[in-house]
Amino acid sequence: MTPSQQTPQTNQDASPSTAPHSTNEAKAISLLLKDLSPFHFDVRTSVPNVPEEIHRSMQYAVTEGALAGIMAVFIGGVVLTGLALALGANDFIIGVIAAIQAGANLLQMRAFRALERSDNRRTMAVKFAVACRLMWVPICALIFMSVEPFASYRIWIFLVLFALSVGLGVFSGVPWVAWLVDLVPPRVRGRFFAQRNLAAGAVGVVLGIAAGKFIDVWNERALGPPAYAFAVLIAFGMIFGFWAVAIQNKMYDPPFPRPKSPLTFLESLKTPFSDINFRRVFYFRIFYDFSLGMAGTFYGVYMLTQVGLSFTFVSAMVMVSTFTNLLSLKMWGKMLDTYGNKPILYICLIGKFIFAVLWLFTSPITFWLYIIIHLFGIFDAGNGLAVPNLVYKIAPADRRANYITVDGTVVGIAATVAPLIGGSLAVLFSRWSVELGGVHLAHFHFLFLASVGMRALTFYFLRKVHEPESASLAQVINVIEPIRSIDVFEGFQFALRTLVAPARFVIKKLAPKSSEEQQKKIKKPGKEKGRAKRGG
């Protein structure tokens, strides 16, 4: 056989082997892109037999989260503040707007009672979501209201309309959260809510910068009265908001677990408090929210006033914290589903404790320390997923909406009161100053020190909370060192180990002691599968 005759046979042999190889590479790339995408979540990779309607609805929920995140950017944040100032708001009014947003959570019990009467979560959630977004139509109209005497009262009319919008949003949010929790299989709740938060946060970061740039360009080029720029952004926000409602309305609403016997308003309020374990969760939540809220509002104020840093630098630090938060969401979601919420909370609370301590050593020249501090946004992501997920898991199925509602009410009170106490303490400490071992403490440092003490107390209350089917803290720490069982980027693995390393001694002191039987069940790092169980 001549060489020319052998060539066709060689080509024929090569093509079948090359094609599958190329196909496999294409599939691998496709799977990688889907895994990296903040808008894709396939529940069937973890729960193979999940019904198609649940799978499709969970994907809808991720999309809805992204659309709601876009709406939040265009009607909140810098847009909301700018709109209020354009309508004549002063510093007091800005504080009132923040109080309205926090205090609206106190309506959650009323919303829960309405849910019990309606017996239809989809209808209630969609109806109040539409009403909430429609309130922004008259708010936009206020921008064009220049006829007296209405022009002089625009800011007060705005406050009334804004309060109505936020209140209607609470009546939509209560059935919506209960709906989502019942829709998502417990095995993937951590990963699902991580994915949804990532979708909302990713678009929020990008469009938040774009919204600020749009306002600057509008003013620089004098495209119209400055307030009109806010009207344009709010209009776009409403479009995405109604789009989110349309997506929401397509989702499957699983059967609503009804309580065996209806309760009065006071009974609904008291029932979660009569649950010993959930009462411990309340104590933990109160101290946790107080420890964050009393100082969290003033870190930026401290950098701008006491330290004298530029707005650009402070904004850059916010971006660093936001990006580390978003990049770690998927990792924390997988760890929550594998090991439970309580051990992850221990790790994240240690990180936030160190975060608060490091602020005591900051000064106008410690630029690298500010960067390191804001890298601790990784632990904000873990806390943000684990805290509500712990509530969802511990609450009984037939009273889950009730428990979530009361928990939201407690959080609303803490979120409203904590900044007020923090502000009062900041005024009290304004003239305080002391030198300790070369470290100069003044004004806000004492507020940060008080926050450190409050954060230390949260560990005591967390230890008393019992979470069924969760790993011990020691087991999770053993896995974190090589972290082979968590599918994350190698660089991010190194970042996590670096941030956890300073807390190793404290973690070992806080770790609950395991029985001999539990110690025998601990598998070697990298081979642990599923969720390790422990008692107590």
Strand content: under 5%
Classification by helices and strands: mainly alpha
Shape by Cα distribution: globular
Mean pLDDT: 76
Q: Largest sheet, described in full?
A: 2 strands, antiparallel
Number of helices: 23
SSE series: HHHHHHHHHHHHHHHHHHEEHHHHH
What's the arrangement of strands in the largest beta sheet?
1-2
Assembly state (oligomeric): single chain
Poorly predicted sequence stretches spanning 5 or more consecutive residues: 1-15, 483-495, 509-536
Taking all Cα atoms into account, the compactness measure Rg is 26 Å
**Which bin fits the share of residues in helices?**
over 70%
N-end to C-end Cα span: 78 Å
Secondary structure: number of strands: 2
What does this structure look like?
- The chain has 536 residues and is mainly α.
- Helices cover 73% and strands 1% of the residues.
- The protein has a two-stranded antiparallel ribbon with strand order 1-2.
- A hairpin with a 2-residue loop joins strand 1 and strand 2.
- Helix 5 (108-118) packs across helix 8 and helix 9 (189-220) packs antiparallel against helix 14.
- The longest helix has 34 residues, at 3-36.
- Residues 1-15, 483-495 and 509-536 have low confidence and may be disordered.
